[in-house]
C-alpha cells in the first residue's frame, strides 16, 4: 500500500506530466476552470441526479462503514444485513442545494450500491435496486417538497438489479435493463401487477466469462421509439414492446469492450429537429479498457486505457462506425452533453479498469468534443483539476451550465488513509469556458417564459432573451437538455434536442430579442417530463429554465 504522501506526489507528477510533456505549447490556451465547492460533503458521490428543484440527490452505499456525516436528529439505521455496522448513525445519501451550496443528510433504509434510476415525468426520482437487502427495492424521491425523504417500495422489482441501466420511455414508464447475472429487463411502473421480466439474450451473448464487460449497458431511445442497446463491443436496435431485435449493428472496430468493468462512456449526440423530424441520430462512445484489462489489473498489471471513440449513425439503413482518436486515453470517463451541444469528457484514469483498486493514473484534464467540427479539430483539452476522480466518480450538468463533479474510490470501511486514491468526499464544479467573464457580453439571459413552463408537443414556443452585445441572429439556437442519472461513467436518460428556430430572431425591445419555435413533435423524440431550456448565442448558453413537456 502506498502512503498518503506518495499519493499526493504521484498526483502532482501526473499533472506535470500532462502539462509539460503532452501539451507544451497550448497550456495557456486551455479552457475552463475549477472550483472546490466543498472539501467534504460527508459521503462519496457515487450516484447523482439533478432534480427540477435545483437540488441534487447524491448517494453511495449503506454497507461499508460510517460515512463522515451524521443522520439528522440523532437518527440511526438498524440493519441486520449490513456487513460492517448493524447500527449506523451516519448518512449515505444527501441532498445538495445548488443555490445555497448547502447539504442536507438523508436516510436510505436499504443498500443502494451500484444501482440505477431516472426521473419520472412528474419530476420524482425513481431509483431501482442495489445490493443485498436493497437489490429488489425501488425508491422514490419526491421533487416537490423541501424536506422530502426517500420512500421505499419493498419488492418493487421482479428481479434483483445491480449494475443495471434505466431509461425513460415515450409512454412515461421506465425500463430497467440487465444488471449482474440478469439477462432480462422489466418496467416501472408495471403495465399490470402480474407483469414479470422479459428475457434479453443479447446480454448473454455479450457476457465475457467471469468478467462480464456488459454491465451498465449504454441504452438510448432512438427517434423511432426503439432502444439502442450497446453492451461490451456491439449493439442492437431493440423493440422492447415486442421483445424483438430489429437490427444488429457492426462490432465496434478493434473489438475492445466499452462497458463495466472496461468502462468507457457514451452519448446520443444532439438531436436536431427540423420540420418536426430528426433526420439523424448518432451515438458516440469513447474510451474504456482493452480486452483482458480487468484480469490484468487483478494481477497487478494496469493496461493503458483506450484512446479511441466510435461514432455511428444509428438511424442509417447501413450504419458504419467512424473511429476517432482522443488526445488522452481514458477509462471511467464521463461523457456529458453541454447546453451548446458540445460533449464534455471528464473524470477517469489512464490505466487499469473500473472496480475497487483497479484504476491507475488519474486523467485530470477534461476534453471537449465538438461533434460538428471537421474531424481534425473536434477535441480540445481543458484545464486540469487536482483531485483524482477514479472509480465511482460522477459528473452532472447544472442549470447554470456548470458541471458538478464528485466521488472517487470509496473503500470498504471508508478508508481515508493507507490506500491509493483515498475515499473522496469533495465536491467540485467545472465551468466550461462559455462561463468566462469575457463571454458575459454575448451571453443570453432568458426573460420569458418564466421558470417551470408547461409545453405541449408541437406547440409554438416563444422565448424572449436579453443580450448585451450585438446579436448575430444566425448564431441563435434553443436547446432542451434532460437531467440525467449519473453513475459508473454513464448518464442514463441523457438527451439534448436542438429546436428549430429557423432565422426568426427578432428585436422586440432594448437589447431584447424573441425567437419562435415548435416544441418537439412526439414522445419518441422527447419523452414527457422535465427539461432544461437554454438559449445559445455564438455557442454561449444562457442559464437554463425548467420546462415540462407533456
Ligand atoms: C470529515 O468531516 C470533518 C468535519 O466536517 C472534516 O473536518 C474532515 O476533514 C472530514 N474528513 C474527511 C476525510 O473528509
Ligand atoms: C410529492 O409531494 C407532493 C406534495 O407533498 C404531493 O402532492 C405529490 O403527490 C407527491 N408525489 C409523489 C410522486 O409522491
Ligand atoms: C421544411 O418544410 C418546408 C415547408 O414544407 C419546406 O419548404 C422546407 O424545404 C423544409 N425544410 C427542410 C430542411 O426539409
Ligand atoms: C499505463 O499504460 C501505459 C501504456 O500501456 C504503460 O506504458 C504504463 O506503464 C502504464 N502505467 C501503469 C502505472 O501501469
Ligand atoms: C480500513 O479501515 C478498517 C476499519 O477502520 C481497518 O480495519 C483497515 O485496516 C483499514 N485498511 C487500511 C488499508 O488501512
Ligand atoms: C437571417 O436574418 C438576418 C436578419 O434579418 C439576415 O440578415 C440574414 O440574411 C438571415 N439569414 C438567413 C440564412 O436567412
Ligand atoms: C438599454 O438598456 C441598457 C441596459 O439596461 C441601458 O444602459 C441603456 O440606456 C438602454 N438604452 C435605451 C436606448 O433605452
Ligand atoms: C412569434 O409568434 C407570435 C404569434 O404568432 C408572433 O406574434 C410573433 O411576432 C412571433 N415572433 C417571432 C420572433 O417570429
From TrEMBL:
Keyword Cytoplasm attributed: no
Domain Galactose oxidase-like Early set: 443-549
Top-level taxon: Eukaryota
GO molecular function, one term: oxidoreductase activity
Keywords: Membrane, Oxidoreductase, Secreted, Signal, Transmembrane, Transmembrane helix
Cellular component annotations (GO), alphabetically ordered: extracellular space
Domain spans labelled Glyoxal oxidase N-terminal: 46-434
Subcellular location: Secreted
Pfam families given in the database record: Glyoxal_oxid_N, GO-like_E_set
Transmembrane segments: 15-37
Gene3D superfamilies on file: Galactose oxidase/kelch, beta-propeller (2.130.10.80), Immunoglobulins (2.60.40.10)
Name listed for the protein in its UniProt record: Aldehyde oxidase GLOX
Organism: Lactuca saligna (Willowleaf lettuce)
